[in-house]
Amino acid sequence: MNGCVAQSPTGGIEGAEATGPVALSVEGVSHRYGDRLALDRVSFSVSPACFAALLGLNGAGKSTLFSLATRLLRIQSGAIRVFGHDIQAHPGEALRLLGVVFQPRTLDLELSVTQNLLYHAALHGMGRREALKRSAEALARVGLTERGRDKVRGLSGGQMRRLEIARALLHRPRLLLLDEPTVGLDVKARADILGHVRRLVAEDGIGVLWATHLLDEIRPEDDLVVLHQGQVLSTGKTSRFVAAAGAEDLRSAFTRLTGAGVGSLAP
Amino acid sequence: MRPDALTPRRGFSPAEYARCLHGIVWREALRFVHQRERFVSALVRPLVWLFIFAAGFRQVLGVSIIPPYETYILYEVYIAPGLMAMIQLFNGMQSSLSMVYDREMGNMRTLLVSPLPRWFLLCSKLVAGTVVSVLQVYAFLAIAWFWDIQAPPVGYLTVLPALILSGLMLGALGMLISSAVRQLENFAGVMNFVIFPMFFASSALYPLWRVQEGSPILYRFCELNPFTHAIELVRFALYGQVNWTSLAVVGGCTVAFILGAVFAYDPARGFVRRRPTGAEA
Q1: Region at A43 (left for phi over 0; alpha for psi -120 to 50; beta for the rest)
Q2: DSSP state of B72
Q3: How deeply is B23 buried, as exposed, middle or buried, from its count of CB atoms within 10 A (0-12, 13-18, 19+)?
Q4: How far is Cα B15 from Cα A232, in angstroms, rounded to an integer?
Q5: Domains of chain A by residue range
Q6: What whole-number distance in Å separates Cα of residue B111 and Cα of residue B89?
Q7: DSSP A264
Q8: Range A1-97+173-260: architecture per CATH
């Protein structure tokens, strides 16, 4: 696996593609809510062991894309594949390789931290012994070992997010989708979570699609997909995107490309 | 990266299905234990009918000896099976509605990203809801026992399969309704257009022969109402008997409603409807 890891400024999507199927491929996906076109022929791919940022303002179509990729919405046209498995035709194979952290919280507040993990494990058909073992490991990784018996309601926002990430990784997926996972968190919790996910990419070789509208979460060496009003405006390295726009940083490149006012972007 | 990790085997083993079902039922039971208010309100409703309505109505309505009863019975004894089915009716509507709409949306996402087939996940959810409704019914029966509504001891065992079947039917009906009918946005709508008509046009509160005397048309409606058959199935089972007609109707409706619900179920409805402006789309 040479090249496309978040830390490496060299290499790229092309290098990783040669070694096997792409982690996520979105092919000509369009989606309508009634008359409104939410996604318009969206195509891009995420390579294994890559950190790809999906950058877009609120309403750009990020959450719709996530709902399609997890079969919460039916795909109207186009195709989405996870390691070559079509999410519509073979959802079982695709979902086994996929972990998701949705933007809204999806934990069971009344249940304990461990119970939430065990529930997820059961949904993946995991045996109880294996589930307990993996839960303990997962909690250790996100520093929540002490909180295993506590009700989720008592966790902080950052802890809940860490727990959701731990849960999404419990079945050992090869691709992790995160939909604005740091929204509403304080600076430290944001940095913790972003650092944790970047380590998953670098150390475990997990492909990550990180949807965000927060520019400071994106590094120059990250792959970038710019989604604006349901259309993909650009794909490729962030640094190239900035250079191509003739801008000095991502913010001005994004503003120049989309015509979005600076005020609508977070720092 | 192991190559085999990227080509997971097709399909799922019976053990995986079993663990998934167990996990879904286990979670529902845990939530049920944690949510005492839900439990209490599910019990208070039939008890109000029993303690107040039935006591007041006892003198108005005489009940003759009809199967499965072998003696004259108090009105309270007559309506008990109807109230048991009512518990399941409310439970079925509530849990199915909350499945599609707001409150459990987050949990539905968790459920539906499971790789197991969606029909299986929905059926497991139905089974879980049914288990909870059966627990509620037994709690009601326990209280009713002290109110002198006592079935033969074996009846408490024989009623179990009837309750499971009627619980599945009503849960599936709730899921079908919430998937298929767009107007029923809130529980008040469901109360007015589903629960009340089903409950009152049934044999819950009065034997059908009395309805027939009053209105032959209403009698036909009551006869065609699957809820009537759920009640009669439970009523007979509580006395160790099988009402074959009702069993056939409830069984057939259960299969039909489940097929319809799985076919019509669209997980997107809840959140698409809530964000018509696409603020987060």
Answers
A1: beta
A2: -
A3: buried
A4: 43
A5: 1-97+173-260, 107-172
A6: 24
A7: G
A8: 3-Layer(aba) Sandwich (3.40)
Give the CB-side neighbour count of residue A45, counting CA atoms within 13 A.
Answer: 20
Q: Which one, of A225, A209, A143, A139, lies nearest residue A174 by Cα?
A: A209
ipTM of the complex: 0.84
The answer to whether A74 faces chain B, any CB pair under 8 Å, is yes
Cross-strand pairs, A68: none
- The per-residue pLDDT for range B71-109, each reduced to its tens digit, is 888 888 999 999 999 999 999 888 777 666 555 567 778
Judged by a CB distance cut-off of 8 A, whether residue A22 touches chain B is: no
Amino acid type, B212: Q
* pLDDT single digits (tens) A145-161: 999 999 999 999 989 99
Cβ-defined contact of A97 to B281 (cutoff 8 Å): no
Question: Hey, which residues does A30 pair with through a beta bridge?
Answer: A77
- Helix-helix angle A157-168:A187-204, to 10 degrees: 20
Q: Which of residues 144-203 of A touch B (CB under 8 A)?
A: 172, 174
Q: Are A111 and A151 in contact (CB under 8 A)?
A: yes
CA–CA distances in Å: residue B233 to residues A12, B89, B162, B182, B206: 66, 14, 6, 31, 16
- Show me where the domains of chain B are located: 13-270
Radius of gyration of chain A from Cα atoms? 18
Answer yes or no: are the C-beta atoms of B203 and B82 closer than 8 Å: yes
Q: Hey, is the C-beta of B70 within 8 angstroms of any chain A C-beta?
A: no
How far is A252 from chain B, CA to nearest CA, in Å?
Answer: 24
CA dihedral defined by A74, A78, A80, A81, rounded to 10 degrees? 130
Mean pLDDT across chain A, nearest whole number? 86
Helices (H), B58-104: 75-100
